[in-house]
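Key idea: predict the complex, not the pieces.
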Amino acid sequence: MPQDSYLFAVGRIRVKENKLMGQDRIERMLDTDSLDDALKVLSESDYGSGEQVESPYDYEKLLAAELKKVYDFIEEVTPNKELTDLFALQYDMHNLKSLIKGHYLGSQEDLPLASIGSIDLQDLTRAVKAKQYDSIPDYLAQALVKLEETFEKGFDPHRLDFFLDQLYFKRVFEVLKKHKNPFMRELFVKRVDLTNIRTLLRVKTIGEDIDFLKNLLIEGGSLDLDSLLEVLEAPIDDLLVMLKESEYIDFIEDGIRAFDSQASLTLYERQMDNYLLNYIKKRKYNPMGMEAIAGYLLAKENEIKLVRMIMVGKINKIPKVAIRERLRDLYV
Amino acid sequence: MNLGLLLALSGVAISVFVSGIGSAKGVAIVGKAGAGVVAEDPEKFSQVLPLQALPGTQGIYGFLIGFIILIRLNIFGELAEISTSGGLMMLIGSLPIAIVGLISAILQAKVAAAGIGIIAKKPEELGKAITFSVIVETYAVLALLASFLIVFFVPLT
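Result:
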């Protein structure tokens, strides 16, 4: 049942925050020697909704169930579904990408679909496969029609990804305009900025030109897009100089330098996540706002990412030190 | 009925209902936050309850001032004589607790709701959560005192 104020939601989340895995439990999971033991730590943390996992290799099922549980919980307590749906919308976009790719490339089975989202998965499927748009939101229907026209000449999966990523942020800022929630606005502005920097670095790696980057950058952030375009073909120091005045530089400088020397975005992405988690962490004590809800969601998504990293690492027999290196800070 | 009596009774009404609204809003705010915690962890009920009760005091203070005015008017017997200026002073005397009661109850509730967050994590720290919230109470008590001094000591005629 949707609630009429944030208070109830935040009260419930405060208790749920106690059940977040925390540094010590993550460490304990990392320190286990067998996959079964690692899985045991998860079941201690109430992962999933009580389904039995037969083999540790099925851990993904458990993680998917856990994420679904979190989103169901948020939907149950949120006093502002439109705002919290912005987080779920990412999964709609992900599903759309899979469905459309499946549609054009003809693969029918085992599409990697998430059971989370703000729009019913069947409605999405119907929209893509049967072109019946009556049960999906108007903006999405219009976008799908436009996509279809674009792909008449030929399907381009990259184009699809960019298109839907941009559509996602466009929708986010439209909704945010209506709700006047400075915290959420700021959060997504930061997300756009950090995503744009990552896109810039990626485009640098594949050696494409400014026109290519221009189509990929997302509007709505605080960084000037033209300046970002300018530094594409310049040395990495120019990017750092450009970011000097921004609030991000202290957090992501190492990541950008690591990218420059090792051509790997791992550190940058970790710092990007840390930055966003940190932004929320400082604000999560507001008992009457979105902060705690967004914080819990992101913390949980982050936790699931960590668990996945540990499980993948363990399955592939990667040394603990190397796994730890990749783990992000925890939010508790 | 004279104007003085009318003004004094308005004072009673204002002190009771304005501070009462504040307290009702206040306990509702903390109640919602507390219900969230108890929904997840029913054992925390006993720690949550004192926090919910805190913003309820302003309503009681307002009622107390209203009651003192009524007593001075001798409401249970033959009504006392009261001049227009006397009634006006009673009305003025009701304002501190009415206004400060309204605002402080809601602000106190917000502090208490944040305190509920402490309880959710560390139930043994209830004392600290209460302390934060009680500090807001100080100003309601001062307003009560001011209101009390006025309505108790000013002459009726």
